[in-house]
Design brief:
The chain has 9 helices and 4 strands. The protein is of the alpha+beta class and 221 residues long. The chain folds into 2 domains: 2-79 and 211-215, Glutaredoxin (3-Layer(aba) Sandwich), CATH 3.40.30.10; 86-205, Up-down Bundle (Glutathione S-transferase Yfyf (Class Pi), Chain A, domain 2), CATH 1.20.1050.10. Strands 2-1-3-4 form a 4-stranded mixed beta sheet, with helices on one face. Strand 3 (54-57) and strand 4 form a beta hairpin. Helix 1 packs across helix 7. The two termini are 27 Å apart. Bound molecules: glutathione (GSH). Glutathione is lined by residues 9-11, 33, 38, 51-53, 64-66, 100, 108-110.
């Protein structure tokens, strides 16, 4: 497998975590987003959306981190990244999508660049936009974790160690990169106890440590 990705890209980081959790090896192909390498013909020739990550596998090219992770989960089921039951899967996907669909699109590089370059928004206003949407999204995520926690207790289940249950899931693959991103841009992460507990639990695991930006071949200190 070949993973076209960028060390700082949250969506790429999600896939690196999934690959590491499953113990899958792959060729790391850096695409320097800040330099605009994703807009060069070499990349747009293989990627129809011009975004990272892109996974080349068995002669196919897969885009969209969530689709890639679900593909990996179906083709390499151990350890599973989604619960065995339909209700559990819906809950985990809802958590994952609150980050991938509600937060991440608003803090994406091209959106922030559009604000500044086309709408002439100042750097400070752009940062306010960024922090507002990330914080609001994480507060919603925290409320969802609190609801799930209450449901588990009611059902006589142990509190979750990770976002859902005692093994990492698709939701954790999404949460950890979002927190890294928030930390980088000074988002206030106070008052999110369940969210940060899940993040801390993930970061104890070698797979999450291995996948983090600082351990990528294209990392820039
Ligand atoms: N929904 C997509 C998002 C992909 C995406 O937006 N990737 C970002 C990096 S995290 C990117 O390539 N950005 C380039 C740009 O915004 O110009 C996914 O989950 O894969």
């Amino acid at each position: 497998m070949k993973l076209h990705n960028y060390f700082r890209s949250s969506a790429s980081f999600r896939v690196r975590i999934a690959l590491a959790l499953k113990g899958l090896s792959y060729e790391y192909i850096p695409v320097h987003l800040a330099r605009g390498d994703h807009k060069l013909p070499e990349y747009t020739g293989i990627s129809s959306d011009g975004l990272v990550p892109l996974l080349e596998v068995d002669g196919e090219r897969l885009s969209q981190s969530m689709a890639i992770i679900e593909y990996l989960d179906e083709t390499h089921p151990q350890p599973p990244l989604l619960p065995a039951d339909a209700l559990g899967r819906a809950k985990v996907r809802a958590l994952a999508q609150s980050i991938a669909c509600e937060i991440h699109p608003l803090n994406n590089l091209r959106v922030l660049k559009y604000l500044m370059r086309e709408l002439k928004v100042e750097e400070e206003a752009k940062n306010i936009w960024y922090r507002h949407w990330v914080r609001t999204g994480l507060e919603s995520f925290e409320r969802q974790l609190a609801t799930l926690d209450a449901q588990r207790r009611q059902a006589g289940l142990k509190p979750s160690v990770y976002c859902w249950g005692d093994t990492p899931t698709l939701a954790d693959c999404c949460l950890v990169p979002q927190i890294f991103n928030g930390q980088r841009f000074d988002v206030n992460l106070d008052g999110l106890p369940l969210t940060m507990a899940a993040f801390d639990a993930c970061m104890q695991l070698p797979a999450f440590q291995q996948a983090q930006p600082a351990n990528c071949p294209d990392n820039e200190a």
